[in-house]
Amino acid sequence: EKILNGNPSRRTIEVLEFEENAKLPNQPAKWLSPKAKEVWKEVYDWLNKIGCTKGILPCNLDEYAHCKSRWLECEDAITTHGILVKNDKGKPVQNPCVQMAQQYLRQTNEVWNKIYIVIRETKLSAWDDNSPNDDIMENLLRR
After folding, report:
1. What does the pLDDT read at residue 33?
2. Which pLDDT does position 8 carry in this prediction?
3. Residues whose CB falls within 8 Å of the CB of residue 52, separated by 6 or more in sequence, listed in order
4. At 32, is the secondary structure helix, strand, or coil?
5. Please, what's the b/e burial string for 89-109 (b: 16 or more CB within 10 A of its CB; e: otherwise)?
6. What angle do CA 105, 119, 39 make, to 5 degrees?
7. pLDDT tens digits, residue range 1-27?
8. What's 55-118 look like in SS3?
9. Mean pLDDT: which of 12-21, 24-33, 102-111 is highest?
10. Phi, psi of 121 (to 5 degrees)
11. Dist. CA 129–CA 123, nearest whole Å
């Protein structure tokens, strides 16, 4: 009977109110490097174009821009110096930037997945059945 009434413990229900129009700030964080700010602006412009600036946490976009810019820096260093470098004894060893690039790419993908979840949930109503990037089975199960 208590469950059917909707409040089995008879506690007062506190209603939390969230700001309806919470959006991403339209400027990157000041602590980001110039390259990270370029990445941030590029992603923000794309999110704005597809109408998904709501629901994405600003810290996620900042973290994505930071990790992606660091990954690009590592890739530039690998391109400049090569995959193998000489150690102090003159023997070839793996460039340390290779491992750092792999770690930054993994972090970048993890943060992007957080952002993409919001995009997917926001754009689910306008799902494109012809796009190979959209999971058709997931769309069918949600209808």
Report:
1. 94
2. 66
3. 118, 119, 122, 123
4. coil
5. eeeeeebebbebbeebbebbe
6. 45
7. 666 666 667 677 676 665 555 566 788
8. CCCHHHHHHHHHHHHHHHHHHHHHHHHCCEEECCCCCEEECHHHHHHHHHHHHHHHHHHHHHHH
9. 102-111
10. -70, -35
11. 12
Residue 13, classified by CB atoms within 10 Å of its CB into exposed (0-12), middle (13-18) or buried (19+), is exposed
- Residue 118, both tokens: 């919001």
**Phi (first) and psi of residue 54, to 5 degrees:** -80, 140
Give every CB contact of residue 141 below 8 A, 6+ residues apart in sequence.
none
Average pLDDT over residues 78-95: 90
- State the residue for tokens 């959006």: 23
Chain-centre distance for alpha carbon 6: 38
Dihedral (CA of 130, 136, 142, 143) sign: positive
CA dist 97 and 115 (Å) reads 26
Rounded mean pLDDT of 19-39?
81
Rounded distance between C-alpha atoms, residue 103 and residue 67, angstroms: 9
